[in-house]
Design goal:
The longest helix is centred in the C-terminal third of the chain and has 27 residues. α2 packs antiparallel against α3, α3 packs across α6 and α3 packs across α9. The chain has 218 residues and is mostly helical. The chain starts with 13 loop residues before the first helix and ends with a helix. It has 9 helices and no strands.
Length: 218
């Protein structure tokens, strides 16, 4: 059984979400202006945090699973693939993300706008899904250094495998969701759990899609 985390805990309040996204965007644009510049890993971490927040901002403000939402999720996937390309293991990436938490230089603002522990757990699951999909595809990163096989802490590897096989069989994203809906479960999922699973399927699907696009363009 999957240990499902209530996705509502990761949705930011509208005001907080807007401020957080604005802050992360401004911080990313101004990284080069900081004293001594910004490390490559620091910029990558800022991009990941920005794209993560943007997904929830898009979902919270519209409530729609539309092209804008998928575009935001696709940005997160691309940023996670970039981290994989740079040779970061999940453990190393999570450490970098914690070290490089976004800062505005206003302590009171930073204390209230940093990711919560629940949000960090959600981001870790997303990163695992991307990395696990890349490992399943035997993708070789630009560095040539392949990170260790991601540890499956909550039993998501079967979902990664199911989506990958379904895509190889020609399923579309819509067809995947329909196939999952038709499958019987020993323990019926709640609406929140179904929504969360659908989000995970999209992340796996978009990662496979990104690799297919790279293969065609190479």
């Amino acid at each position: 059984n999957l240990q499902i985390v209530d996705s509502r805990r990761f949705q930011l309040g509208e005001r907080r979400c807007r401020r957080a996204f604005l802050k992360s965007s401004l911080t990313l644009r101004s990284a080069a202006e900081y004293e001594g510049g910004e490390s490559a890993s620091g910029v990558l971490c800022q991009k990941l945090t920005t794209s993560f927040r943007k997904v929830w901002l898009q979902l919270y403000t519209t409530g729609l699973i539309d092209d804008a939402y998928l575009g935001s999720l696709r940005c997160f996937v691309e940023d996670a693939v970039e981290a994989y390309d740079e040779g970061f293991s999940i453990a190393a990436l999570l450490l970098e993300l914690n070290v490089n938490e976004l800062e505005t230089r206003f302590d009171r603002f930073d204390r209230t706008e940093r990711l919560t522990e629940e949000e960090r757990k959600s981001r870790e699951v997303w990163i695992f899904l991307v990395y696990s999909t890349l490992a399943r595809l035997k993708y070789i990163p630009r560095t040539g250094f392949i990170t260790e096989t991601p540890e499956d802490k909550i039993g998501l590897q079967p979902l990664v495998e199911f989506v990958a096989v379904a895509l190889e069989d020609g399923f579309t994203l819509e067809g995947l969701h329909l196939e999952m809906a038709l499958r019987q479960s020993d323990e019926p999922l709640t609406p929140t759990q179904l929504s969360l699973r659908a989000q995970w399927i999209r992340i796996i699907f978009l990662t496979n899609e990104a690799m297919q696009l790279r293969k065609r363009s190479s």
